[in-house]
Amino acid sequence: MLIALLAEGAAHGHTPDDAPPAFPPFETWHMPGQLFWLVILFTTLYLAMSRWILPKLSDTLEKRSDRIASDLDQAARLNDQATEAQQALELRVAQARNKARETSEKASEKMEAEMAAETARVDAEIAKKLEAADARIATLRSNAMTNVEQIAIDTAEAMTARFGLKASAGDLKSAVSAAMEKK
Amino acid sequence: MTFLMPSAAIDPIHQFQVSKWLELNIGGVDLSFTNASGFMLLGVVLTIAFFGVAASKGLLVPSRLQSMAEIGYGFVADMVRGAAGEEGLKFFPFVFTLFFFIFFANMIGMVPYAFTTTSHIIVTGALALLVISIVIGYGFYKNGLKFLKLFAPSGAPWPIYIILIPIEIISFVARPLTLSLRLFANMLAGHIMLKLFAGFAVVGLTAGGIGYLVAPLAFGMGVALNALELLVAGLQAYVFAILTCVYINDALHPSH
After folding, report:
1. CB atoms A32 and B31 under 8 Å
2. Nearest CA in chain B to A43
3. What are the domain boundaries of chain B?
4. Nearest residue to B70 via CA among B78, A46, B232
5. Is some CB atom of chain A closer than 8 A to the CB atom of B59?
6. The complex's ipTM?
7. How far is it, in rounded angstroms, from Cα B202 to Cα A81?
8. Coiled-coil annotation: which residues (chain A) (predicted)?
9. What is the pLDDT of residues A74-110, one digit of tens each?
10. Burial of B69 (0-12, 13-18, 19+ CB in 10 A)
11. What pLDDT is attached to residue A106?
12. pLDDT score recorded for residue A154
């Protein structure tokens, strides 16, 4: 029923005094006009696109890709520079480390040398003092021996005197010496 | 049933009616500015306005509108490059214009009460003839008579050519026909369907009874068809443009 209604509607779409209801796309009266305006409007659109809009768009796109390329170049360049700087830094750190090692080696060598010199000096001083002490001990001993001889002579003189004898100093001395030698 | 007097409201053909807006007669030829011309003008103005505004600033970091224009540019450029190669880019402005002319016309047609300029065979036929004229003209201009190799693909044994050449010629001649009819018929049929289902909904409601059952179904169909027609509107513009590229490729490289 609905379809019949619609079909009727289609059939009577125009009032009877209209031209016979042709299918509009196949009517011919409007075709020259449609063509005429199509040519004008399509040409207008074509000119607007090809002369104005498309060059502008392609210009923008080109500028952007140029900009991106140059930015990438710059980034690569900066990256290279950073790498170089890092290498230079590493080199300098290595140099500084070597130098520090050298300095510390030199310093320790110097200190060892100083220590050796000081030790030698002190050793020499000690040796000198020992020598002096030895000399003094020797003097003291010989003095002591002399005193002992004198005491022996004196004792011998006193003993001989007790016996009522008299001995010359020379005899006493030689006797004591001989006795001491024998000992 | 007289209250259902068929009217423009439910006549599915009425939407294709051309009516004069401005009478214009030059040398006995009726060149009136009609509703068809009006909506075509609207499409062209909208296209130029959209791209004009979108492209005007040329920002390094594009705005949304500029992005859309650039995507459109890239889309058509890739289509031309893909189908016709780098040489085909000579025709890029033409294909771009063609695509957006049809695209905007189809999309404007989706607006209720708007006139669909691409639903008239004279418009689609003229565009198809323009494409084929460019293909033939440029084909002969660039290749001379070698362009005729298009009809005789190399590498076939000679008896085959007796059948092959007529087939190739027929298929070439059919191109403007299919190109124009495809767009015309798609737009026409789609819009008739839309109008029919919308009409069913209206008639169903006014008829009452079983109509109350039919109307929501018809309305739902109408909504679904609207989505489909939006797809078809975009797709047919794309098909027209890509086939143009394919034909241009033939003009550039006729011997395959």
Report:
1. yes
2. B97
3. 2-252
4. B78
5. yes
6. 0.90
7. 76
8. 72-113
9. 999 999 999 999 999 999 999 999 999 999 999 999 9
10. buried
11. 96
12. 86
Contact between A38 and B40 using a beta-carbon 8 Å cutoff: yes
Mutate to test the interface with B, among A14, A41, A63, A67 (most CBs of B within 10 A): A41
Residue with the two structure tokens 């002096």: A132
Give how far the C-alpha of residue A87 lies from the chain's centroid of Cα atoms, to the nearest Å: 11
Tokens for A135, please give them.
């000399």
Which residues have C-beta within 8 Å of that of residue A27, sequence separation ≥ 6?
B18
Domain ranges of chain A: 48-181
Which residue of chain B is at minimal alpha-carbon distance from A36?
A: B31
CB B172 within 8 A of CB B139: no
What are the distances in angstroms from CA B196 to CA B10, B63, B74, B193? 7, 41, 38, 5
> pLDDT tens, A142-172?
888 888 888 888 888 888 888 887 778 788 8
B248 vs A175: which has the higher pLDDT? B248
Q: Which residues of chain B have pLDDT under 70?
A: 1-10, 256
Question: Alpha helix locations (H) across chain B?
Answer: 35-56, 64-84, 92-109, 121-143, 158-207, 211-252
Residues with Cβ within 8 Å of residue B43, at least 6 apart in sequence:
A41, B101, B104, B105, B108, B117
